[in-house]
Amino acid sequence: MARLRLESPLDVRLTDSGLSVGEALAAFNAAQGGAGAIVSMLGKVRPDGDVKALELTHYKPLTLPGIQALADTARNRFSLTGAVVWHRIGVMVPGEAIVLVATAALHRRDAFAAADYLMDHLKSAAWLWKRERRADGWHWIEPRSQDHADLARWK
Amino acid sequence: MARLRLESPLDVRLTDSGLSVGEALAAFNAAQGGAGAIVSMLGKVRPDGDVKALELTHYKPLTLPGIQALADTARNRFSLTGAVVWHRIGVMVPGEAIVLVATAALHRRDAFAAADYLMDHLKSAAWLWKRERRADGWHWIEPRSQDHADLARWK
Amino acid sequence: MAVRVLFLGPLADLAGSAEREIPAPLDWLGLLDAVGPEVAGQLRDERVHIACAGRVLADKTTLTAGDGDEVALLPPVSGG
Amino acid sequence: MAVRVLFLGPLADLAGSAEREIPAPLDWLGLLDAVGPEVAGQLRDERVHIACAGRVLADKTTLTAGDGDEVALLPPVSGG
Known about the structure:
The complex is a heterotetramer, with two copies of chain A and two copies of chain C.
Chain A: E1 10-15, H1 21-31, E2 37-44, E3 53-58, H2 60-77, E4 82-88, E5 90-92, E6 97-105, H3 108-125, E7 128-134, E8 137-140, H4 145-152
Parallel strand pairs in A: 1-4
Antiparallel strand pairs in A: 2-6, 3-5, 3-7, 4-6, 7-8
Helix pairs in contact in A: 2-3, 3-4
Chain C: E1 2-7, H1 10-15, E2 19-23, E3 26-27, H2 28-44, E4 49-52, E5 55-56, E6 64-65, E7 70-74
Parallel strand pairs in C: 1-7
Antiparallel strand pairs in C: 1-2, 3-6, 4-5, 4-7
């Protein structure tokens, strides 16, 4: 295991191919020898009745730098020793991973809170647009008011 | 990856050899095709200055059934589609994994809350006794009042 | 030369394409005029942002894009 | 035959061993008597539990262990 090596304590990636969650977490664990707790959150495309596919569009000059800045903020706020934020872009099908967040800290409360924080902010603040393909074609996913409530938890 | 297969949606183990976190999470991910979110928490022995080793003692007729009952409660309370709870016993050194919890649910809030719940209850309610070896010998770790505060969050 | 205007997410459907070249210089009123009434209506929504040369404008009405600049029209991001 | 008494965690240090055989039948007062004053003092602490035949007793003073039973003395579990 852990053939993958993470060179930086903050490893942020946008990728248009599948996320290898086991490999990523094994590598992160190996790189975070000094952490007491590592929390991860893997988001997958839900097999949601009618949904055949999900497409994520990004805007390169903003999306990756925005997520990097978010990871950096989380690192400082929760005293992380490291973090992984990998986001899929492109077309994916139900069951495939969309996002992997992992956080390492001395104490588990910080690692939990940071993973939760990163997910809430990714969902609401990362420059990503999603559409779903259903039986009758593609549909853009609108902003949700729940996402604003999620963000307000951290104010 | 995913050479390991998980046969049951609730996979609870006590093990006296190392935890292969990447393999476990890859297998859990593969087994949880219908989940929208998978959260994991890996606890490791902190390289805490003076600590050379940590030993966990269990009582077989109680410890494993107790953790299984806890996992079952968490599954019902948070509508989990599955959970992994692996706990090390025996002697381990700083940097080694002590506990791996992973939870799968349709929605990430449930998966996060369930992993948090499992950790709080494992720390306080699982029949495990810990001692640390420092330069001057072994020392039993006392109960902590913080653990009671952690449990009170779920009342 | 010109300004390259990108229509992100659902704006691409409204605009009929994902990008267009528009003669430089390009300001806010010129943009509204060039993109047609439907996209212009969206651009007036306070939740729609504009980036120029890789930076999101704090006040999109101050847009001043020159030759070779890329202007991205950013609708609200999708929910979780 | 006898009752097998297990001393878990720090109780093993106090008892000087991890387990002992004590003649059956064994009840609460017999146990206090058999384990010596130091361990008996710990057993009176409400945070110390007793399991008999794999079950934790709700009221440890009701202990009634017969031939072949295993009695486990369970100090408070360690903190996180």
